[in-house]
Amino acid sequence: MAEVKNKQVILKNYVVCFPKESDMNIVEGTITLKLPEGSSDVLLKNLYLSCDPYLRLLMAKNRYVGFGTYTLHSPLAGNGVSQVVESGNPDYKKGDLVWGPTKWEEYSLIPSSQIRFKIEHTDVPLSYYTGILGMPGLTAYGGFFEFGSPKRGENVFVSAASGAVGQLVGQFAKLSGCYVVGSAGSKEKVDLLKNKLGFDEAFNYKEESDLNATLKRYFPEGIDIYFENVGGKTLDAVLPNMRLHGRIPVCGMISQYNLAEPEGVTNLAHLIFKRIKMEGFIVNDFYHLYPKFLEFVLPHIREGKVVYVEDIAEGLENGPAALVGLFSGRNVGKQVISVVRE
Amino acid sequence: MAEVKNKQVILKNYVVCFPKESDMNIVEGTITLKLPEGSSDVLLKNLYLSCDPYLRLLMAKNRYVGFGTYTLHSPLAGNGVSQVVESGNPDYKKGDLVWGPTKWEEYSLIPSSQIRFKIEHTDVPLSYYTGILGMPGLTAYGGFFEFGSPKRGENVFVSAASGAVGQLVGQFAKLSGCYVVGSAGSKEKVDLLKNKLGFDEAFNYKEESDLNATLKRYFPEGIDIYFENVGGKTLDAVLPNMRLHGRIPVCGMISQYNLAEPEGVTNLAHLIFKRIKMEGFIVNDFYHLYPKFLEFVLPHIREGKVVYVEDIAEGLENGPAALVGLFSGRNVGKQVISVVRE
After folding, report:
1. Which of B257, B252, B256, B206 is nearest to B229 (CA)?
2. What is the pLDDT of residues B208-266, one digit of tens each?
3. Distances in Å between the alpha carbon of B21 and those of A269, B130, B185, B317?
4. CATH 3.40.50.300 holds for B3-131+308-338
5. Are B122 and B97 in contact (CB under 8 A)?
6. In what residue span(s) does the Enoyl reductase (ER) domain sit (chains A, B) (predicted)?
7. Smallest Cα–Cα separation from A221: which of A188, A246, A194?
8. Long-range contacts of range B217-221, CB-CB < 8 Å, 24 or more positions apart?
9. CB atoms within 10 A of CB A305
10. What residues of chain A have any CB closer than 8 angstroms to a CB in chain B?
11. pLDDT tens track for B3-44
C-alpha cells in the first residue's frame, strides 16, 4: 500500500467577481497508489491540466446551474492529460495515456467511465491534448464548421482570437477560404495573429475607442460569421456589422463571467433585420465528432499547416496564477499547467 | 380619362422615438383611373391595409438599413388587400383580388411584379389576407414551425401574444401538442388568450413586478420555445428560464423600436449554458411556403379550429391613430384599416 504525497489546488472560497489567487490554496494531501480489490476505477498520474475560462463558472456558488459547482476545500477539476497508474477497467492498462476530466492534483482516483479518450497518437506534443487535440480544438472545430457553416469567400471575425479556441477558428477559416480578422488584447498577440497564425488582419481592441468604426474599417462589406468568445460590448458592436443571414456561433462570453452585473447588449434587433442565427454550444455537443476531427487536424499539424501556440505554466503551484491570468489576458495562447516538471 | 380624388396617408416628418398621429397627414390627391398605353403596371383599389409594427422602422431616417425608409410627403406603404381596377399584365384582370405591397391611399398604381398573390379563396373574410392569411399568418407559420421546431409536449412562451402573429403562434403550438403561455398588456387581452384563443395560461406583463419569478411560476420546468415579439426586459427574463437546446425564433422586438437607446440584454451567456438557438427572420424568408401554409390553415379556419381576432379601423382617416396605437397596445388583435367604408 504505497501511500504518497499528493499536491492539490483546492478552492478556498466561492468567487463573486474576479477570481484571485487567494481564492485557491495549494495543499499537500496523500493518496494510496493502489486500487481497492474489485474497484473499476482508475488511478491517474496527471501530466498536463487545461486552464479554461469556463472553470470560473464552477467557482461560483450556484450561479450557472447547467455547469455544476466545485466543492469547497476540494481540488478544482477540469480536463487534463494523464497516465494510467493502475486500472480496474480492462479497457485501460498501466501506462496508457488518456485525456478527459481529472482533478488539479498530482494523482487522481476517478471512475473509469469518466475517461474521455485514450491517446493513440504520441508523435505530437502530449500537452496538445489539453488544447488543439482536446476540448478547445474540438470546440473550435464543431463550433466553426457545424454552427458557422463557412463558405469560401466569406468574412469571419474572431474575438479572443489568440486564445485556446480562437487561434484555431482563425486557421480553420483560412483553410476554408475565408477572410478572417481577429481581435486580441495586446500588441504581442496581434503580431502573433498576423505573423504566425495566418489571420488576414488583427487589432488590439484595447486601443480602439469606437469598435463599431473599427469593424466597419476591417469589414466594409460586413461580417458573415462572428465567432463569439467574449460577449458584452464586442457583441454589441458586431451586430450592426453583420451581413444578411450571418451566423454567430456563441462559444464563450469571457468578458462577462466576472461581472456582478453583465453589460447590456442593445443591438439585438439586428438579428431580425439581418436574419441572423446566433447559437450557443459547448464541447459536449461535439464529442461524437472527435474521430473525424482527429482525421482532419492531425495531418495539418504534421505538415505544419495548422500551428498551435501554448503558454505552459510549470507546476501546480503556478496553477492559481495561470487560471486568474486568463481573465486579465496574461496568457499568450492556450494556457496549460504542466504538473510534472520536466 | 377618369380623374378621381385619392385620399392618402402621407409621412410628414421622420420619427425619432414614439410615432405620433401628427407625424402623418391625411391629404386628398387625385389619380387617373386609366393606365397609359403599353404600361405593365396595375391600378388597384385598396380595400384593407395592414397595420404592422415594422412600419415604424420605415418611418425612421436611415436607421434600419435592410428595411428602407419612406419618402417624406409620400404615402406610407405596406401590405394590403386590393381589387384590380385596370391591369397592364395579362396575369391579372379587372376585378381580381390580390394581396401584397400597396400604399396607404384609396387607389394605387404599382408595378404588377409587386403583387404578391392573387386571392383564390373568398369564403373567408377578405380582411384575413392582411392577417391570418397574409403576412402575419405566414410569419407565424414559418417562424414557429421552421425556426421553433416544436415537438409534442414542449413548453412554449409567446410575448405580444394577442397580436397579429402571437395569437396564431399560440394556436399553432396547441395544434402541435405543446403547453403554451402568452403575455399581453391588458386584462381584456389575457381573457382573450385564455378563453377564445386556447392558450393554457396567460398573464398581463404590466402587473408582474418580477418577470423572472412569473416565468418560473408558469414554467417550473423551463421554456423550450420562446417566440420573441418584444425584446428588451422580457427577453432578459426569458433567457435564464430557457431549457437545454431551447429555440428563440426572433420575429420582432416591438418594445425597442421607439427607444432612442434600446434596453440592454444582460443574460445572453445563457445561450451557451443552455445551448440555445436564437434566430431572426422576416416573412420574406417564407413566401415559398405560402401554398403549403394555405393548405394547412384554410381547413382549420373553416372548421373553427383556428380563430383570428381583428381590430378594424374604419377609413384612412383613422389610419394614423391605428398605427400609433400599436405601440401603446391599444389594438386588440390584428390591427387592420378598412379603406372603403362598408
Report:
1. B252
2. 999 999 999 999 999 999 999 999 999 999 999 999 999 999 999 988 888 878 899 99
3. 25, 22, 22, 10
4. no
5. yes
6. 42-337
7. A246
8. B218/B157, B218/B181, B219/B155, B219/B157, B219/B181, B221/B155
9. 13
10. 57, 64-67, 231, 235, 244, 250-253, 256-257, 261-282, 285
11. 999 999 999 999 988 999 999 999 999 999 999 999 999 999
Q: What digits encode the pLDDT tens for the residues A73-84?
A: 999 999 999 999
Burial class (CB in 10 A: 0-12, 13-18, 19+), B221: exposed
pLDDT at A133 > cutoff 90: yes
Per-residue DSSP letter, A196: T
Cell (9 digits) for A34: 493502489
Note whether A279 contacts B282, CB cutoff 8 Å: no
Nearest CA in chain B to A244: B66
Q: Where are the domains of chain A?
A: 3-131+308-338, 135-284
Beta carbons of A265 and B268 less than 8 Å apart: yes
* pLDDT tops 80 at residue A342: no
b/e sequence A253-270, b meaning 16+ C-beta within 10 Å: bbbbbbeeebbbbbbbbb
Q: Return the residue of A nearest to B267 by Cα.
A: A262
DSSP B146: I
Please measure the distance between the N-terminal and C-terminal CA atoms of chain A and give it in whole angstroms. 27
Instruction: For residues A193-207, give the mean pLDDT.
Output: 98
Is residue A339 packed enough to be buried (19+ CB in 10 Å), middle (13-18) or exposed (0-12)?
A: buried
Q: What would the CATH number be for the domain defined by B135-284?
A: 3.40.50.720
Q: Which amino acid is at A147?
A: F
**Where do we find the cell 397580436?**
B163
Question: What is the pLDDT at residue A65?
Answer: 56
Q: Kindly list the residues from chain A whose CB atom is less than 8 angstroms away from the CB atom of residue B256.
A: 269
Q: How far is CA A248 from CA A53, A154, A321, B49, B239, in A?
A: 19, 13, 32, 36, 17
CA B342/CA B327 separation, integer angstroms: 27
